[in-house]
Amino acid sequence: MSDLEATKAGSGSTTDLAAAQAAAHAQLKKVKKQKVLLMGKSGSGKSSMRSIIFSNYLARDTRRLGATIDIDLSHVKFLGNLTLNLWDCGGQEAFMENYLSQQRAHVFSNVGVLIYVFDTESRDVERDLATYVNIISALVQYSREAKIFVLIHKMDLIQPSTREAVFDQRVSVVRRKTAEAVAIVRKQKPGDQQQPSTALQSPSSADAIPDIDLDMQLFATSIWDQSLYKAWASIIHDLVPNLGVIETQLASLGVAIDADEILLFERTSFLVVSKWTSREGERNPYGDRFERMSNILKSWKHTCSKFTGTPRNAEQFSDFEYKMGPTFSMFVTKFTTNTYILVCMPPGEARFNSAKLNVAAARPWFRFLDGPAVGASPSSQMLASVGGGYSSESGGQAPDA
Ligand SMILES: Nc1nc2c(ncn2[C@@H]2O[C@H](COP(=O)(O)OP(=O)(O)O)[C@@H](O)[C@H]2O)c(=O)[nH]1
Ligand SMILES: [Mg+2]
What we know:
- The structure is a single chain.
- The chain has about 400 residues and is α/β, with parallel strands linked by helices.
- It contains twelve helices and eleven strands.
- The protein has helices spanning about 5-10, 15-30, 45-55, 95-100, 105-110, 125-140, 165-185, 225-235, 245-255, 290-310, 350-360, 380-385, and strands spanning about 30-40, 70-80, 80-90, 115-120, 145-155, 215-220, 260-265, 270-275, 320-325, 330-335, 340-345.
- The chain has a six-stranded mixed beta sheet with strand order 2-3-1-4-5-6, with helices on both faces. Strands 8-7-11-10-9 form a five-stranded antiparallel beta sheet, with helices on both faces.
- The structure holds guanosine-5'-diphosphate (GDP) and magnesium ion.
- Guanosine-5'-diphosphate binds next to helix 3.
- It is found in: Cytoplasm.
């Protein structure tokens, strides 16, 4: 049963509710580990992205990064219950050959996500694509279920007027090459030397290998703008445990406080973990506002660090309010240990104050974001709690906290 189903089921009989709670609780207790391969030619920008997203580097700091030798393995804790085992694979040809031969099983087994980076500046596109085909073939052999994210990177180096056309052209080439890679694997016989995958052991002939439907997404990215956050938020989105529970609870909170939009950010990367938008909020014409907010808040954090002389990975701020007169109001506040929450509201002082208090009251119901050991309850209970909190409708004025 998915988290969402478990949560929804909570509205049934008492036994159903208890069972659903137990199921949700069991789910929340698990720490998920994900192997994430970061691959692509040397100099394509892999380590830069990783350092900006997870280690608080500024884009300009990445010019000082040394070349990655072999595989740089890091364990990134994301929220309380997800660990990303990030394999930053040095992209020099000798290393790539080694991953595909001696280290093949070691590198490509149990992969949750492959992030493959193409450098738009590369002068040898044919060779890059040939390597890509080999990598995808190896991945399909050992981890057929892995999600693939292809980043067409350093888009800032392409003239803005031709960016879209360049991206579209690369997308079609990459899709064609991916199909080629899949075809190679399907043609291989089970006895082939490079085919020790358990997934491929059972079929007696190559024809018996079922069609392979890869889960692949492509993004145009640059470390110099918010496109990086869009791509990486998509990458982590599907990995986040209990997403159904998070979404349901955010929706309950949004409705209870009468918000236009709520974004939940992971505290270090400022990637959007989840979001909820009201019907009114959906009329917002800025489709890229989520990654823009990630980028803005991260820059704001770095600016705070510069002017206070505190380390960049320190917390930096706990509360940020922005009131745009009759248009809208917004606040960003430290929510749980591992998250910040952004709430966008229609204008109105009373509504704003009430929302702030209710967000504070809802905090305990999101504690499961901070670790597997802490329990959480389905959203129906949270709603009851928030509903019994401060109301913006009944008189509007929240009591002094
Ligand atoms: N113009 C531009 N340069 C980038 C971008 N991303 C990374 N770089 C630069 O590319 C160089 C190589 O980056 P690095 O992360 O070490 O590449 P890796 O070998 O794939 O890990 C560094 O000087 C980065 O500053 C980008 O989006 N645009
Ligand atoms: Mg590197």
